[in-house]
Amino acid sequence: MTNSLRIWRRMEMPDPIRVHRYQSLPEQGPKVLFFSGGSALNKISRVFKKYTHHSVHLVTPFDSGGSSARLRAEFDIPAVGDLRSRLMALADETVMGQPEVYALFTHRLEQKADPMALKHQLQQLVMGVHPLIETIPNPMKALIQNQLAVTQANINEDFDLRGASIGNLIMAGGYLNNQHQLDPIVFLFSRLVKALGEVKTTLNASLHLGVELENGEYVLGQHRITGKETDILPSPIKRMWLNKGLRHVMPTNCHIADDRVDAIKTADLICFPPGSFYSSLLANLMPEGVGRSICANPNPKVYLPNLGVDPEQQGLSLMERVSRLISTISADTNDAGPYSSLDYLLLDDAYDYGEIDSAFLDELKVTVIKTPLITCKQHKYDEHLVARALLSFV
């Protein structure tokens, strides 16, 4: 029988010795787990892989806008755009990587091209004669052609290819070709681009987001919540749930797979990073089993809040965001988790985040850590400073 122990140490922020150690041997780096979606973490991820090849990225499959929306509507699949973009952020960019595969996966078809010309380009890709795929060696080339052929065979004649991501089209074909499972194709593409980290969706389910606003209005769909593709919500968000479809309010939920449970429970550090507060961060924490797994992990949990203006968090102070983050996790645990849901609030030492209520945070047993995280007076985190700060926790 084994027992779990919490070991405390004096922490230096940033810790140059630890940072240098990880940078020297990234293949032996710590297992840092990020709950994230969207592109907000991609720059940090590209830097993070220089320090550890064992980061884990659980991304949301609930996006319903952009080119992902067309694929979701066509095949009733989880959103694959965030998976693809994070895989690309973690791809090996050294001479040992696969630059041809990277170029293909990150390419988008022209937004204003003639639809027939785009269908011809897709046919060229399937046949292996398009310039983007010609130089990829077999068997990788054949594997990619096979997935694209599945997508091509299953899309309707009037499917809009304008602005479509080739990587998303490949992943959609892989999903259809693997009994509607994303994990096998994500694993394959991770190998193809030699991803220096692990990327998975929190759930392998085609669900959407639903919110109730303070004014009593209901809104369905991630793309209607973010305030980026549509108008900003007319009222702050009161609550959020996972929903079946986009037409009617039909709350649902699913339990995360065992490998996700294990990844969360065994992480050396859990980070709640910047990104859209509801549709990227809290959405990732809502599936059954996520909160319980977080609170079964004795290691540090860190919240790095957004800078600037996030349309989703209108009316929410930083302290209220901390409270909602914790309550979302606690909703899955019945307030009975053996360990904490949040330990540290990581802040830039000069940025104005608004009121910091020390008594409130003390009651929650959340410690504030302030360190330089922003350079050049820009309201953006410096990815190098953030990586070094996070690695100083482990």
TrEMBL record:
One of its GO terms (molecular function) is LPPG:FO 2-phospho-L-lactate transferase activity. It comes from the Bacteria. CDD domains: YvcK_like (cd07187). PANTHER family: MATERNAL EFFECT EMBRYO ARREST 18 (PTHR31240:SF0). This is CofD-related protein of GAK system. The lineage of its organism: Bacteria, Pseudomonadati, Pseudomonadota, Gammaproteobacteria, Oceanospirillales.
